[in-house]
Amino acid sequence: xxxxxxxxxxxxxxxxxxxxxxxxxxxAIPRGGVPMGRRIADILEGELDVVLxxxxxxxxxxxxxxxxxxxxxxxxxxxxxxxxxxxxxNREIERQQALIAERRQRYTPVRAPIDPAERIVxxxxxxxxxxxxxxxxxxxxxxxxxxxxxxxxxxxxxETLARLERLADEVICxxxxxxxxxxxxxxxDFEPVDDDxxxxxxxxxxx
Length: 207
Known about the structure:
Layout: H1 5-15, E1 25-28, H2 33-44, E2 47-50, E3 53-58, E4 61-70, E5 75-77, H3 86-107, E6 120-125, H4 132-141, E7 148-153, H5 158-164, E8 170-172, H6 195-203
Helix pairs in contact: 1-2
């Protein structure tokens, strides 16, 4: 168990220490991944931005993930999505796409997203159960031409990591427990991160 997200970030940064001096682009998945991304970017002397993805919740049970959606209309659906009607799924997709557009405007209103082309890109999240959001993030970034695409998570089950290894050039995850219920199970302090904190961290400078 990690004490908090920053401890997980420092564990990831140690495993990524070879990237220091190469100006890596750290792309955090909001909101929980952003404090971790800020710490990793500071340690590795890289740049921080966000990659915006949203979980798709099952109709009537929003906590049950049936996929994810990212910027650029990237959509990823679990096989379990077949249990639900197409119209209900499309409504959930449209709702999450609207939230992504709203977050981009709120988080980086005066600049475009940082271009990942020909950059070493590290996608950071505090953890993942199914890998839906990380999968969508990686799939949305690959066509944009990063030199190297790395997935970095605090915790995830082995089957999720195996899935991500097919999409990333490297997967870094210090904790891979076989018995996995939820990401928060592995953090003593798993307080929610709000939008004000995300905006502050994106605007802060290393050091």
